[in-house]
Amino acid sequence: MTGNRFWRLDRHPEGNADFARFLTLCEEDAVPLAEGEVRIAVEWLSMDAGTRMWMSPRTDGYQPPLPLGAKMVGLVLGRVSESRDSVFPVGTLVRGFGQWAEEAVVVPALAGLEAVDESVSDPRQHFGALGMNAWTAYVGVREVAAVKPGEWLAVSAAAGATGSLACQVGRNLGANVVGIAGGAEKCRWLIEELGVQMAIDYRAEDVEARLATIPGGIHAFFDNVGGPILDAVLPNMAHYGRVAICGMVAGYDSDAPMPGPARFDQILMRRLRVEGFFIPDFLERGAEFLPQLRAWLDAGKLTVRFDETRGIENVLTAYERMLTGKNIGKVVVRL
Amino acid sequence: MTGNRFWRLDRHPEGNADFARFLTLCEEDAVPLAEGEVRIAVEWLSMDAGTRMWMSPRTDGYQPPLPLGAKMVGLVLGRVSESRDSVFPVGTLVRGFGQWAEEAVVVPALAGLEAVDESVSDPRQHFGALGMNAWTAYVGVREVAAVKPGEWLAVSAAAGATGSLACQVGRNLGANVVGIAGGAEKCRWLIEELGVQMAIDYRAEDVEARLATIPGGIHAFFDNVGGPILDAVLPNMAHYGRVAICGMVAGYDSDAPMPGPARFDQILMRRLRVEGFFIPDFLERGAEFLPQLRAWLDAGKLTVRFDETRGIENVLTAYERMLTGKNIGKVVVRL
Fold it and tell me: Which of A103, B166, B255, B284 counts the most CB atoms within 10 A of its CB?
């Protein structure tokens, strides 16, 4: 066996470009497992914006920063190749927080490791319609933003992995959906493939003005972004509207906190409820969400478009595509 | 009978000073009542920060701006002196949104007019422990911030009319309370008379650093102020904490929206719920809150300190005292 290749975080990145200046592809001999550990032969890596935060030295994020010199951490999907945990025997197809590596070594409880359903024909769906992005969309739209049939749901980063699922969860729950995304191609996809009522290209259009054409305002907003998009939505919220803060991608590449929304005052004026949530808090509820997501997937009511890159040596390219919004749908890397 | 004296809004005020440049004390002959109207011989006026907003031309506040040339509107307490509404016969002691006038003329349904309990020995308590500030404190602390026994509740503008009641509601519900106020005298009052566990003088102390000494963080924050105080509290919130946005006094004197909190990111990082509320939305629930408030008042568990000014000609002085925080407790004007 050749060595295990992995990405090591050597320096804190600046911005969302040139990650090769900050991470290094390394190789090591396989280390022996400790009691309770599991080795996974990684088949797929999931590229997620949230991981950008633990590359930075900020200690006030949702998770502590990753120490410099550590293997980069992210969601992995693969088969157990060696096990010192009887719950996960060799050969089990698993998903959890591992490393950007050919062979991930994890303690299952710390990694949120789960055996996934082998009957799903496209294993990428464990990062798609049945994955953490889908749980996030489901919890955020249904519980945090608490959208009701006939209401208007707005979604930012709507052509991204989570946003595109949030649009569809809203549509499946009977809401009218307005997706906000960057570029005409993404907006076309939202309208033609995902069935949203309105798509707004924030690069070419005045988001605030277009949202103002919705009579009665936005009842629920699923926000992945923060920043100027949030500023455009807040004055267009209906009274007693709900904002689910899923992400603040606009601020992840900075070592300083992103400034607060310019229209924070609207939280009072319109009596809004703004709530941050973090899907790992809901891991133990996954079994509750999965049947609905699986039923929608099987019925053709959850479309996931995959943006696929091959080879561990190309991870940084895929990651940068995702962070800069060049992707449509879910960015994955096939090892 | 001499004419009815009232304050007229002639220009939009700037800042929180020199209101005499913007409002004029006028006198008029009594106008005949229309069907459904009620005339009130005003005995007390309540000075409330929220009214500062409708003096400004902003159309995105909770209420439309008051037109220039109109009588200034605020909460009044007095007896019906003439009535064309059979629900409010002459002689009834009533409270509602009237005018800064010796004789207020209102349509009861639009004014939120209510007959108040004559058995309360100090009628000022209808603006105090039994008034809208108390309802605000009760709803904000108990329902919006949803404080539980043993949790830590922070209150800003804690020596003001609403804040001092919010501290006591929290204490009565079994919370530990930290009050944030401006000046040593206010802080002493909070500790010695209102029984808060900690008082922070934001003019002399580092609010963020003192809050950081609370182990486990703040579970619930009742915010009247916004701005730098909110910035100091957010990074000290416990995970899953609740912030009740009751007011944004820091921004009321500006025609432009107050900038959003610098630590808005903490809403995501700490999974906070931030909710704006507006007590007139809860008017019809007053009957539900009153028995508890009355019981606390009778048991000596709601202390209200009144800051009293006499004479309609001195209204602007009282108003400015309240807006600039020179008061301790509830500012009222005795006509």
Answer: B166
